[in-house]
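Human:
Class, as today's exercise, you are to examine the entry below, and be ready to discuss the fold:
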Amino acid sequence: MTTKKLLTAFLFLLFFCENTKAQTYEKKIDSLILTGFGNQNEPGGAFMVSKNGKTIYRKAFGKANLELDANMTPDHVFQIGSMTKQFTAVTILMLEQQGKLNVGDPISKYIKDYPSGDKITIHHLLTHTSGIKDFTKMKTLSTIAQKEMKPEMMVDFFKNEPVDFAPGEKFDYNNSGYVVLGYIIELVSGQTYEDFIKKNIFEKAGMSHSYYATDRQLIPKRAYGYHRKDHGFVNKTVISFSVPFSSGSLMSTVDDMLKWQQALNRNILLNTAETKKAFQKYKLNSGEEFTYGYGWHLKDINGTPDREHGGSIFGFKSMGVYIPSEDIYVIGFSNCDCHSPTEITRNIAKITLQSVKK
């Protein structure tokens, strides 16, 4: 056999092996997702996996709209819930980079009448160590859930509640802290939170299908949200998005979330020093380290460090996992809060990590 024929045979064999490997990987991911999103006549979800910034898996399952019998596609727009906190945290760091604030500042510097605001810092808010009352746990939340609330009104709603612990004493996931951050962003930047995110993040990162959530504005390719009841599915509970505000009111697509991850990787939004602050672990007053940076949980998958965060808001759930050492990003969205993508997304990341290490 000539050298040319040997080379051709080798390349064909290489292509065949790679193609077979890709098909095996795809089938593994499909079967994993179908364990939770297998009924194609129910609300569904969208999943995407990237490696080195390139999409290697991208599929949708189920229905985007039950009334219209519309199938889900990977292009559909979902509410991302608490994944919003990533954007709020990065916005704070952008303002610090511009010299407009410092994460070590007490919040009394910006909100003069905040109780014990001289002891609570922006850092405490970012890391869920402030001790302030989480408004989502307040029994009176239903009285404002459908009202249009200005950021100051939202802060006033919970600021006089007794604190749960002294600042820095413990880590306790807290939505109120991120609402206060959103209010500070508006005070410092002179822009609404929505405008700042749109102009300084969405537009810079090329996220043309991401929005501050609304039930009034027409959103192209919007996935509708659902709850499951004993008698079947119902449309999601209607709330005012001014209530979750900067703790959970953004919408996006799987493709736009990859652009977000790429913008962070390429320092399009933050310099290296500020980016590092988001992704490092911090310590409590006792010296004990906890596994949360600024807007991300810092965990690991089989010993390999990752950055992850989920979200849950009426009718929707979301989850994102990023493995820095391998540049693997996995994102999962669901348009029913009865289907959680959290464990599925983590397991996809686990399988993907195993496949690249073979």
Q: What stands out?
A: Residues 43-357 form a domain with the Beta-lactamase fold (CATH 3.40.710.10). The mean pLDDT is 94.
